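step=encode ok
step=design start
structure_in=
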């Protein structure tokens, strides 16, 4: 499965920034060993249901440690039997665009 998720702390630092809390969540994802990527809006992570959800929970817990409230947006592509889709889906799209 691939999960795209975004965390939003309700409170920021002294300047209103939330990047330190979000960076800690991304660090947890990257250290998980699961395939992942981060863009301007979401962090995507691929793996089996239990391992992906455990990483999301650890990321939420890290942000909750510095913020009294955490918003979580999560979208999942659940496709049993498929792996490597984090890059394969994009590759298929690019191939389709090249054919046009």
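sequence_out=
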């Amino acid at each position: 499965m691939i999960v795209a998720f975004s965390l939003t702390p309700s409170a920021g630092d002294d300047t209103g920034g939330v990047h330190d809390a979000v960076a800690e969540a991304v660090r947890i994802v990257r250290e998980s060993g699961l395939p992942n990527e981060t863009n301007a809006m979401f962090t995507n992570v691929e793996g089996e249901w239990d391992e992906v959800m455990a990483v999301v929970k650890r990321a939420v817990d890290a942000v909750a440690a510095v913020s009294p409230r955490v918003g979580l947006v999560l979208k999942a592509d659940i496709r049993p039997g498929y792996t490597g889709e984090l890059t394969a889906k994009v590759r298929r799209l690019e191939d389709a665009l090249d054919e046009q």
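step=design ok
step=annotate ok -> Residues 2-99 form a domain with the Alpha-Beta Plaits fold (CATH 3.30.70.930).
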